[in-house]
Amino acid sequence: MAHSRREFLKIAGISGLGLCLPASTGLISAIAATPAAGPPPKPLAALKAQRWAMAVNISKCKVDCADCIAACHLEHNVPDFGKTKDSIRWITSQPYPVVFPGVAKPRLPGESKPLLLPVLCNHCDNPPCVRVCPTGATFKRADGITLMDYHRCIGCRFCMAACPYGSRSMNYRDPRPFVRKLNPGYPPRTIGVVEKCNFCEEKLARGMLPACVTACRQKALVFGDIKDANSEIRRALNSGFSLRRRPELGTGPQVHYIL
Amino acid sequence: MLEKAWKGNLGYGLWMAFLLLLIAIGFFFYLRQLDYGLGITGMSQDVSWGLYIAQFTFLVGIAASAVMLVLPYYLHDFKAFGKITVLGEFLAVAAVIMCVTFVFVDLGQPGRVMNVLLYPSLNSVLFWDVVVLNGYLLLNLVIGWMVLTSDRKGAPAPPWVKPLIYLSIPWAISIHTVTAFIYAGLPGRGFWLTAIMAPRFLASAFASGPALLILLCLLLKRLGLFDAGEKAIQTLAKIVAYGLTTSIFFVLVELFTVFYGQIPEHMHHFEYLFVGLNGENMIAQWMGVSAFLAVAALLMLIVPNWRQNETILAVACAATFVALWIEKGLGLVVTGFIPTPMGEMASYIPTGPEIAITIGVWALGFLILSGLYRIFIAVREEM
To answer: What whole-number distance in Å separates Cα of residue A101 and Cα of residue A49?
Structure first.
């Protein structure tokens, strides 16, 4: 989580730029990544895919870097409770044996030198959280993204018991006072609902890649259509051996870790 | 008939006032929970269910156990239970109301509870649990009430009650089966992912429920209010003995599979439960007490001379009830979360407000139970 002030301001600046625009052009219009000088930016077409997926290039990911986490938390108004039992997790970095509990064993590279990897919702092909939800508040979209309806969720937390990855977080207390900088482009949550990573569906709809992917300066995160043979993610997955978290459970996780 | 619940002697009045006080304290802390959020409890992102859901699970068993009276009386014409089936049904009513209340206080957004019915999700076990629990509540309320009113008039119950009684038998099995399925179908939770979960739930229910009923009957007898009869009590005691034996057997069966198979993901939970893991041994200490009480109760119940002694029987029933309350009302839910599916340790300690709310809900159940039993006794006195 260690983060220099400069890096923080940089991300805050980029996100802040995103904040200014929806107010003037409305939510549906796209936001260009260039400064808004001259004529208003042309709306970008929404990014579409048959099946969204992510790949993490382990060799490129830096141990002491948390850019992806900071960008995600800024984008989605994730509160900062510090390291407490209530802290909300969208994307976190975890030691290798926690990411792959079944694979971890002595004398694997991750055991000898510290190796932290980003973990997030796996947007499973067969998500147990969706299966158990009693209200349909969490659901699967045709393009593979598992989403939450924060206004339908009753906060029963059945999904949290069902998720074998710990990817879901409950708002055990009011998150708003703990949101450092409010992004009006994404709704802050209320008390008593469950939330999780949404693959930045709100950014995809505006023609942009997920916040964590764009924030990663090492280009360790690859995002794209896994059903498209020519996509960047397919090329990345073809480049080497990859793992998924606990695939033996039959959940069909769609975050791949390239060794 | 309902007005009879308001009449009673001073002892009854004081008892009800005491329960109301506990409910008021619980309600005060519930208002604080509404304001602050469920963060006021010991629950966390890793241990996301705690005392509330554990009480719910335990009490579903108490509710289901009414079938142990209804089945022998209505299917086998076991006359000795004739006098007390209504007591069993009223116990079920109070227990189901506690269950529903515990689920309600556990919700993060209680105002949206109707979403479960507005957006019925047939794939969710929780949806089905809401259906079967409310159905069971309605069945027992109607059956208990109709049987008692017709007893009062000295006439047989209307013919439409009989099919409801027969329906209530498989329905009782269903509430605990569906409740077990909440746990038993979750990938990554090795502790719960076992087909014996539903049979285990039922076995422990058929011990803890009748044990509580025996204690209530002995209390009513001691107070000189109602005598259930020696034969009814002794038959119930045998049911508790069989239920407890089966329950212990099922636990041992699980221990064999887990520790002979030695899959760490399954083993660690049981280590946490019985001996403690990574220094976390609070639950293990409670489980030690539970195991001791269960074995002691079993001894007292299977030796006929001891079982027939009312004092020893009362001790055995209390031990059974406490042992199974610890097992289900403390151990079962929390241990499913510790360690996490990623093998990390987590901890859970209920907070003061959480315990106060829990006691408040129990008091609500006992208030309803006392009122219903008061009506039952008043009707009996009239006859």
So the answer is: 31
Q: Quickly tell me which residue has 């979960």 as its tokens.
A: B197
Q: Do B37 and A133 touch (CB under 8 A)?
A: no
Q: Most distant CA pair in chain B: distance in Å? A: 64
Residues of chain A numbered 125-184 and touching chain B (CB < 8 Å): 128, 131-137, 152-158, 160-166, 169-174
- Under a CB-based contact definition with an 8 Å cutoff, are residues A247 and A253 in contact? yes
- The pTM is what? 0.90
To the nearest whole Å, the CA of A86 is away from the closest chain B CA by 6
Distance of alpha carbon B344 from alpha carbon A110, whole angstroms: 17
Residues 31-90 of A with CB under 8 A from B: 85-89
**Residue A24's pLDDT band (boundaries 50, 70, 90)?**
very low
For chain A, the average pLDDT equals: 85
Interface residues from chain B to A (CB-CB < 8 Å) = 36-39, 42-46, 48-49, 103, 106-110, 112-113, 115-116, 118-119, 121, 123-127, 130, 182-183, 186-189, 265, 336-337, 340-344
- For residue B280, give the amino acid letter: E
Structure tokens belonging to residue A253: 């996780």
Residue B250's nearest CA partner among B288, B314, B201, B206 is B201
- Predicted pLDDT of residue A29: 40
* Cα–Cα dist B314/B245, whole Å: 18
Predicted confidence at residue A66, as pLDDT, reads 93
Strand partners, A53: A224
User: Amino acid identity of A176?
Assistant: R
* Helix/strand/coil for A53: strand
Q: Are A53 and A145 in contact (CB under 8 A)?
A: no
Mutual angle of helices A5-25 and A67-75, in 10-degree steps? 30
